[in-house]
């Protein structure tokens, strides 16, 4: 059903009529004719390394390659963490070439998900900070599990870094300029009810219901005739995507220079050490 890609270790099985493919970092399945499910599966926190970003992009393209598929649910294998965002170790004392390639992979992941012909529904299971929020906001619809300790938002400023301009633009498009000023400036992480109140997400559901609700939503989107739906999506999203495509290498340079600064490195180093308490 889903053709395998050279990049990915892939094994296939048929469970109850559901074709599923298990790969490194992602699992792709097709529980119904028109909806595919892409599960993020990089323990412990689904952080986005270069390889993880490439794997997610490849899986989205693979789902798009099936003409019958019209919608995609993005979920996590971890019920408490959708994604902890970018893999911070990629930005900690990096090799410059690897750092630049890492950023290109993140740009490509955004362009692939945000610009997908598929209707995309994020089943946000638990925490979704920074790059996790980027993944969620790149989808067409967001369902998040309840639990006021779960957080979503852009906390970059608290790490001593700034979100790139296109992530800022996406945030503004999603929640409006004033709330984005507050959210970005304060590095605010929102609980599910707060996120709902500012339209960062569309629904809050019980943990056990999240996949069912996301699937139902995806089925609804999948029934819309694709021609008009995709044309509408292109109209709404192409300006931002075209700008990033044009400025891609400039953006890589900004990212590299910003991350390689001594002060940025000190901040990232301290933040990494504070995480998990083990590094
Ligand atoms: C001209 C102007 C120029 C402007 C500049 C433009 C260019 C600048 C661009 C800069 C862009 C930067 C963009 C950044 C976006 C990001 O995504 S940065 C990442 C932000 N993410 C976070 O802050 C989340 C951090 N993690 C957590 O908060 C928690 O881990 C959690 C709430 C998700 C889960 O908590 P818990 O279950 O308690 O797990 P932990 O014990 O904390 O973690 C377990 C394990 O995972 C490691 N880890 C956690 N997150 C990350 C991560 N994002 N990357 C790498 N590793 C991570 C953590 O260290 C633990 O490891 P050990 O078990 O200790 O080894």
TrEMBL record:
<dbReference type="GO" id="GO:0004165">
    <property type="term" value="F:delta(3)-delta(2)-enoyl-CoA isomerase activity"/>
</dbReference>
<dbReference type="Pfam" id="PF00378">
    <property type="entry name" value="ECH_1"/>
</dbReference>
<keyword id="KW-0496">Mitochondrion</keyword>
<keyword id="KW-0443">Lipid metabolism</keyword>
<dbReference type="InterPro" id="IPR018376">
    <property type="entry name" value="Enoyl-CoA_hyd/isom_CS"/>
</dbReference>
<comment type="pathway">
    <text>Lipid metabolism; fatty acid beta-oxidation.</text>
</comment>
<dbReference type="GO" id="GO:0006635">
    <property type="term" value="P:fatty acid beta-oxidation"/>
</dbReference>
<dbReference type="InterPro" id="IPR001753">
    <property type="entry name" value="Enoyl-CoA_hydra/iso"/>
</dbReference>
<keyword id="KW-0276">Fatty acid metabolism</keyword>
<comment type="function">
    <text>Key enzyme of fatty acid beta-oxidation. Able to isomerize both 3-cis (3Z) and 3-trans (3E) double bonds into the 2-trans (2E) form in a range of enoyl-CoA species, with a preference for (3Z)-enoyl-CoAs over (3E)-enoyl-CoAs. The catalytic efficiency of this enzyme is not affected by the fatty acyl chain length.</text>
</comment>
<dbReference type="GO" id="GO:0005759">
    <property type="term" value="C:mitochondrial matrix"/>
</dbReference>
<protein>
    <recommendedName>
        <fullName>Enoyl-CoA delta isomerase 1, mitochondrial</fullName>
    </recommendedName>
</protein>
<comment type="similarity">
    <text>Belongs to the enoyl-CoA hydratase/isomerase family.</text>
</comment>
<dbReference type="InterPro" id="IPR029045">
    <property type="entry name" value="ClpP/crotonase-like_dom_sf"/>
</dbReference>
<comment type="subunit">
    <text>Homotrimer.</text>
</comment>
<keyword id="KW-0809">Transit peptide</keyword>
<keyword id="KW-0413">Isomerase</keyword>
<keyword id="KW-0007">Acetylation</keyword>
């Amino acid at each position: 059903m889903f053709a395998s890609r050279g990049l990915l270790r892939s094994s296939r099985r048929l469970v109850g009529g559901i074709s599923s493919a298990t790969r490194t970092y992602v699992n792709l399945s097709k529980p119904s004719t028109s909806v595919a499910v892409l599960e993020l599966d990089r323990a412990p926190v689904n952080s986005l390394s270069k390889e993880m970003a490439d794997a997610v992009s490849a899986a989205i393209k693979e789902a798009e390659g099936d003409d019958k598929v019209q919608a995609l649910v993005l979920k996590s294998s971890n019920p408490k963490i959708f994604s902890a965002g970018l893999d911070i170790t990629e930005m900690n004392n990096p090799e410059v070439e690897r750092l630049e390639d890492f950023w290109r992979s993140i740009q490509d992941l955004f362009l692939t998900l945000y610009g997908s012909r598929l209707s995309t529904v994020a089943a946000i299971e638990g925490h979704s900070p920074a790059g996790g929020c980027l993944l969620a906001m790149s989808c067409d619809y967001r369902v998040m599990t309840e639990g006021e300790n779960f957080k979503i938002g852009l906390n970059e400023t608290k790490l001593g870094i700034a979100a790139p301009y296109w992530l800022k633009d996406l945030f503004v498009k999603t929640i409006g300029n004033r709330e984005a000023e507050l959210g970005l400036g304060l590095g605010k992480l929102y609980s599910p009810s707060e996120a709902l109140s500012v339209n960062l997400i569309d629904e809050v559901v019980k943990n056990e219901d999240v996949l069912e609700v996301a699937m139902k939503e995806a089925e609804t989107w999948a029934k819309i005739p694709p021609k008009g739906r995709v044309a509408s999506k292109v109209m709404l999203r192409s300006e931002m995507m075209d700008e990033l495509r044009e400025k891609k290498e400039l953006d890589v340079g900004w990212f590299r220079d910003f991350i390689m600064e001594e002060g940025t490195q000190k901040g990232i180093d301290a933040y990494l050490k504070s995480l998990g308490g083990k590094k």
